[in-house]
Design a protein that fits this description.
328 residues; mainly alpha; 73% helix
Length: 328
């Protein structure tokens, strides 16, 4: 029998003994306020000792999660902890932050301040900064109350925006993740603050990031903006030249060929162009940047190179829709 199986059997046996003690060996007299027991004094002492041993077994098998989180926090603030120790601790913290039961207490467990400080400190190891941002992004994912805590008590929005222009692509990558998690399904709650800190302009720059993963996250976020209460991001991004950036990317791809084409990112680009056609300033930008002509050139290149028919079909469908919208 494996160690895990033995541990499980031991746990079940201990729990069963405690249940037997509480249900079978104790009879409750309904006329009295206390329970009467049929055991002799010596039998009672023996049973109490057995129950104590079983409780010790159960306590060893059920971990106090918050005690564990405090141990992780101590590792993060310890001057003697190695970088590898902190990376390991942050990896576990990020996993905890995926669970609302723990992310809701990010400030009470004193992790918020640590994560913000680590992420903002350019002298820290890149892995420590990246994992700290990741943990913050995980914490605010679709959790309005946690979003408010991170923004108000940790200046989280300002941190995410600042990291969008970081020198390290890993940091920009997780900053985009944090921004999208914070803004999605938040309506206009953070609009003014995000625009004031230059967040939209930096997102547009990240859409043209040399790292495909960074650009891909921005493009995906914007491609679903209409269904995540983030239309305002698209509208502001168009004002910051988003359509010109995307159309130029399509033009360059058509010129260079499909060899280095990221299909996923190109799908997101054309979906963003489709999305911006839903409002007046977006339609004006599409016409100004000759988006339809550039997309048709891309289709011609893809067909000539016999590249990804699904992508070709999707672009064809989007172009047809844009032609219908823009002719009015």
């Amino acid at each position: 029998m494996s160690a895990n199986s033995q541990g499980g059997q031991q746990q079940l046996h201990a729990l069963n003994e405690i249940l037997k003690w509480s249900t079978k060996l104790t009879q409750v007299d309904p006329t009295e306020s206390t329970a009467s027991c049929s055991l002799s004094e010596s039998e009672l002492l023996q049973k109490r000792e057995q129950m104590k041993q079983n409780m010790e077994i159960l306590n060893s098998l059920f971990i106090d999660e918050y005690k564990y989180i405090e141990e992780l926090r101590q590792t993060l603030i310890s001057s003697s902890a190695s970088t590898e120790d902190k990376v390991s601790a942050l990896t576990t913290v990020e996993e905890f932050m995926q669970d609302r039961n723990y992310s809701i207490n990010i400030h009470k467990t004193k992790l918020l301040e640590i994560l913000v400080d680590f992420a903002a400190d350019s002298t820290q190891d890149t892995r420590i900064r990246e994992l700290s941002l990741w943990a913050l992004a995980s914490a605010v994912q679709d959790e309005p109350q946690v979003k408010s805590i991170v923004v108000q008590e940790g200046n989280g929005l300002e941190l995410f925006v600042k990291c969008l222009s970081d020198a390290e692509h890993q940091i920009r990558n997780k900053a985009v993740l944090g921004v999208s998690a914070l803004l999605k399904n938040s309506g206009n709650e953070y609009t003014d603050q995000f625009v004031r800190h230059g967040g939209v302009k930096k997102l547009v720059q990240c859409a043209d990031d040399p790292d495909d993963r960074v650009a891909g996250k921005v493009l995906f976020f914007m491609s679903i903006a209409l269904v995540t209460q983030c239309k305002w991001v698209l509208e502001c991004a168009v004002d910051e030249g988003l359509v010109g950036v995307l159309v130029d990317q399509v033009r360059v791809c058509s010129k260079n060929g499909a060899e280095e084409l990221s299909v996923g990112n190109m799908e997101s680009r054309v979906r963003v162009l489709k999305a911006v056609a839903s409002f007046e300033s977006g339609r004006a930008a599409l016409k100004r940047e000759s988006a339809i002509e550039r997309l048709l050139e891309l289709v011609q290149m893809l067909e000539a190179e016999q590249h990804d028919q699904e992508l070709v079909d999707e672009i064809h469908a989007i172009v047809k829709g844009l032609q219908m919208v823009l002719k009015h």
